[in-house]
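quick one before i forget lol
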Amino acid sequence: GLENRWKRHIDMAKYTREWVLSHNQSFFTNKNALSYTLTCINNIKEWNIDKINDILLSQGFRMDRGYGKFKGKAFRIPHMGNIYMEDLKEYLEIFDEVLCQV
């Protein structure tokens, strides 16, 4: 039901936030304004977002690379709708593999 979906979004948000911090990145938004449906990351490690995106696309995954003046400086990971924890974990595992390639 709806309450289980909300809980799933909260759990996935927490998992994503832990992933962000474990990679020494930071949140783009203020800590008090974090969302349970989307995590926006400040790319302080200056990862090559375009290259990461290209590799992810070649493996069937998409990513948000930021937009406007924030393109490449911030990126977002969604964890809402019909995305499940297993999907999120798979995506972040593949993302980690890609990070080793760039």
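fyi Strands lie at 26-27, 38-42, 74-78.
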